[in-house]
Amino acid sequence: GCSGPSVADRRVFVMDFTQIKGPRGTERALALDEKTGAILWTREWPVDYRSMYLPVGPRATPTVDDDRVYFSGADGKLFCLRPATGEIVWQKDFLADYGAEPNVWGFSSSPLVDGNRLIALVGGRPDARVVAFDKRTGAEIWRALPTDSETGVATPIIVEAGGVRQLI
Questions:
Q1: 149: helix, coil or strand?
Q2: In the sheet where 112-114 sits, what is the strand order?
C-alpha cells in the first residue's frame, strides 16, 4: 500500500494489503513494537478493489489520538481501535452506511482529529462529502457538501486564515 506509519507510545501503526484473487484481498491494521519490530496485534478485513485504478493497498496513514487509533481503508472502511490491543471501539463502512462510491484512487485521506470530532472524507449521500464523527463513539455529529464529483484524496486540514478557523 501507500500509507505511512504513525508512531505513539512505543508502537508503530501501519496498514497493508494481501491480494487473494484479482483485486480482492485483505487489508490489515498492525501495531509493531517500536524497538524490535515484533507484531503486537493485527486487525484484518476483506476488501474489493475492483473499482480502483491502482489496486495496491491502503493509502491513508493511521491517526493516533490518546487511547484511540483510526485506520481508514482504501475501500471505505473506517475503524477506531484501541492502540494497546487492536480491539474495535467502533467502525463505519462508507459504501454501506453512506452510499459512497469509491473513486479510481480509493479512499485515501487520513482522518483528522479536531477536539471531540474525527473528520473524514466520506463521499456519501445526501450531502456527506465530509462527515464529522464523535471520535469516542462514532456517532455522526455533522455532514457537509454534496457529492457531485469524486471525493478527492487529500487529507483535510484546519487552518486559520483571514481571522477565521477553516476546514480545508
A1: coil
A2: 112-114, 117-124, 128-134, 140-144
Taking the C-alpha atoms of residue 12 and residue 90, their distance in angstroms, rounded to an integer, is 21
DSSP per residue over 45-106, as a string?
EEEE-TT-S------SPPEEETTEEEEE-TTSEEEEE-TTT--EEEEEEHHHHH-----TT-
Give the HSE-up count for residue 15: Cα atoms under 13 Å, Cβ half-sphere. Answer: 28
Helix, strand, or coil here: 141? strand
Grid-cell match 474525527, residue found: 118
- 3-state SS class at 28: strand
Query: ∠151-157-163 over CA atoms, to 5°?
Result: 125
By CB atoms closer than 10 A (0-12, 13-18, 19+), residue 126 is exposed
**pLDDT 10s digit of each residue in the chain, 168 long?**
788 999 999 999 999 999 999 889 999 999 999 999 999 999 999 998 887 777 678 999 999 999 999 999 999 999 999 999 999 999 999 999 999 987 778 899 999 999 999 999 999 989 999 999 999 999 999 999 877 777 778 899 999 999 999 999
CA neighbor of 71 nearest in space, from 157, 82, 48? 82
